[in-house]
């Protein structure tokens, strides 16, 4: 009975980690999936659309070492909550963006969550999963990125076509806030 309970907790833990990885990387897929809507809304070039993703990745890449330091200083749980809040605010900002510059600012903010997702989830694995048993949990955690990309690709185009891209971005806000 105890083994089953432990396995259940580990499965739930791995699912939470995969969810963190998924919502932290949503933005990088969202801009491509919603490209047509964003191009039309802001009358921007494809290069300007690409700059949204560029800003996201620059902040994500440059910010990762600093995010790791913050995780060590403030703890992985606190930083996971901060990351969820950051992604939620970023998606609200994208959904409500009145101009391209607002969208750019929200994309840049989402880069903070992208920077922190691996330090947060890796630290949580190191803290709560014993050495020698981490491989499966790490694999499930990392699969969250692909699952998130799949869900974005499957759901966002239809939702944006039916209710508008701003509504679709607003719905994405629910994932980090509810997790």
List keywords for this structure.
mainly alpha; globular; single chain; 179 residues
N-C termini distance: 28 Å
Radius of gyration: 17 Å
The low-pLDDT segments are: none
**DSSP strand (E) fraction?**
under 5%
Helix tally?
Answer: 7
Structural class: mainly alpha
> How helical, in percent, are the residues?
over 70%
H-E string: HHHHHHH
Topology, number of strands: 0
Mean pLDDT: 94
Shape, principal axes of CA atoms:
globular
Q: Report the biggest beta sheet as strand number plus sense, adding barrel if it closes.
A: none
Describe the structure.
The chain has helices spanning 2-33, 35-42, 46-74, 76-96, 100-128, 135-163, 165-178. The two termini are 28 Å apart. Helix content is 91%, strand content 0%. By secondary structure, the chain is mostly helical.
Give a concise summary.
The protein is an all-alpha fold.
